[in-house]
Design brief:
This protein is an alpha+beta fold. The chain has eleven helices and six strands. The chain has a four-stranded antiparallel sheet with strand order 2-3-5-4, with helices on both faces. The N and C termini lie far apart (44 Å).
């Protein structure tokens, strides 16, 4: 155990922030740390949009489902899959790069690159005593988000990240058991053992919610997931991705 591991294992989402903006130095440190993340074949297929305009933040908060902390934080970042610059590279170098750029593989590369960069940014922020929360809600209406942020073709806003000085810190939610996540040499397909682990985890999560809410909630994790997955959301995504220039060949 060292300080880096302690920092990583102490993560929790923060949704209430002090009314205090991040400094330019903090913003730059977070972005440069994001850029230091691994990137497939040095392609760097992502961009980060920092939103400081309060009206835009208010609109993004509404588009994300009325999440107030999207509007009230120290800084709001939007991480985007970005192959727009690579199309420009094709024009500069007079190479036909479009079939590759449109491929499912490069789409996956852009998603992975953006996620790796974002996690670096999150850790950099937390190392400064700041809190963060990922915001997937911006995908509720990517047409409106893209218009608001003026993203060009082959750029897709993937998720936001609120960053700021914590006003209130949530308790850490217990994660799935180590044995449920880590498989050695091959995927463990013992479904009976899997279901038993899930039942034990449900007990842990139910107890967590009961303590956190003074008995007002006793949700199980499997119950939450089943209810969420039963409801079809953001089913427009395939069409939007294709419209943005990713044919997923």
């Amino acid at each position: 155990m060292n300080e880096t591991i302690k920092l990583l294992q102490n993560h929790r989402s923060v949704r209430f922030f002090e009314d205090k903006p991040l400094s330019e130095e903090q913003i730059k440190a977070i972005v440069v740390s994001a850029q230091a993340a691994s990137t497939s074949s040095f392609i760097q297929a992502y961009s980060i949009i920092g939103v400081t305009d309060q009206d835009k933040k208010d609109q993004l908060a509404a588009l994300a489902g009325g999440q107030e902390y999207v509007a009230k934080n120290g800084h709001f970042f939007v991480f985007c899959a970005d192959l727009h610059r690579h199309e420009l590279i094709g024009e500069l170098e007079k190479k036909d790069v479009l079939p590759t750029i449109k491929s499912t593989e490069k789409f996956m590369v852009s998603l992975i690159d953006a996620a790796l960069a974002a996690q670096n940014a999150a850790i950099a922020a937390e190392s400064m005593g700041l809190g963060i929360c990922y915001i997937g809600g911006i995908r509720n209406n990517l047409e409106a988000v893209s218009e608001l942020l003026k993203t060009p073709k082959r750029v897709i806003p993937l998720f936001g990240m609120t960053v700021g000085y914590p006003q209130k810190e949530n308790e850490q939610k217990p994660r799935l058991p180590f044995e449920h996540i880590y498989h050695e040499n091959e995927y463990n397909q013992d479904t009976d053992a899997y279901k038993k682990q899930l039942s034990l985890y449900d007990e842990i999560i139910s107890e967590y919610y009961q303590e956190r809410t003074d008995g007002k909630r006793s949700d199980t994790w499997t119950g939450q997931m089943a209810q969420m997955l039963e409801k079809q959301t953001r089913m427009y995504m395939k069409e939007f991705v294709k419209k943005q220039g990713f044919d997923l060949r």
